[in-house]
Amino acid sequence: MAFELPPLPYDYAALAPTIDEATMKLHHDKHHQAYTDKLNEAVAADPALEDKSISAILSDIAAQPKKVRDNGGGYWNHQFFWETMAPGGGAPSGDLATAIDGKFGSLEAMKIKFNEAGVGQFGSGWVWLIVDGSGELAITSTPNQDNPLMGDAATQGTPILGNDVWEHAYYLTYNNRRPDYLKAWWDVVNWDKAAARYEAAKA
């Protein structure tokens, strides 16, 4: 069964001015669509992949060709990314807020470490807040379209938040100012979704 491009959970302009409408249209309709199409091409070329979920493919990614890795990661990462954001922003609450304070000292301290990891990711990639194998929150980054679910990731875990630091995610508004983008991005984080992911990971 072919993978399908998921629709955005909000309008293209819903995250403006943090992420403008033109960037959202380009990012979703062109970039995410391309990853979806190329993933389907790769899966069609290998009958062993045809009935596998994207999560199953990613967990065994070391055994897959580069086309599956790049486009499978791109497909999953972007679907996760759209759901990580929502109009209005806010702040975490409940168990996730407690866990952030306990691990990092405060929400602001966590944001600083997250943004530093995003700035420090050389070239294209992603920055993540995850629940690691010990059940603790951790911040990590991955190159290209890799993610912490991949079986050969340097730091494995369950993603709670993820931000895309490829230039196409922010260049129209922020040009090459990745730090400005990372700082502004917190205004559109969907903390309700993050809390639900945290609860599922802990369960």
Could you please describe the fold and organization of this structure?
Helix 5 (107-120) packs antiparallel against helix 7 (178-185). A 3-stranded antiparallel beta sheet has the order 2-1-3. The protein has 8 helices and 3 strands, in the order αααααβββααα. With 203 residues, it is mostly helical. The protein has helices at residues 21-44, 54-59, 66-84, 94-104, 107-120, 171-174, 178-185, 191-202, and strands spanning 125-132, 137-143, 157-164. The two termini are 30 Å apart. The model has no long low-confidence stretch (mean pLDDT 96). It folds into 2 domains: 21-84, Orthogonal Bundle (Helix Hairpins), CATH 1.10.287; 94-202, 3-Layer(bab) Sandwich (minor pseudopilin epsh fold), CATH 3.55.40.20.
Q: Concise description?
A:
This protein is mainly alpha-helical and 203 residues long. It is built from 8 helices and 3 strands, in the order αααααβββααα.
Mind sketching the topology for me?
Layout: H1 21-44, H2 54-59, H3 66-84, H4 94-104, H5 107-120, E1 125-132, E2 137-143, E3 157-164, H6 171-174, H7 178-185, H8 191-202
Antiparallel strand pairs: 1-2, 1-3
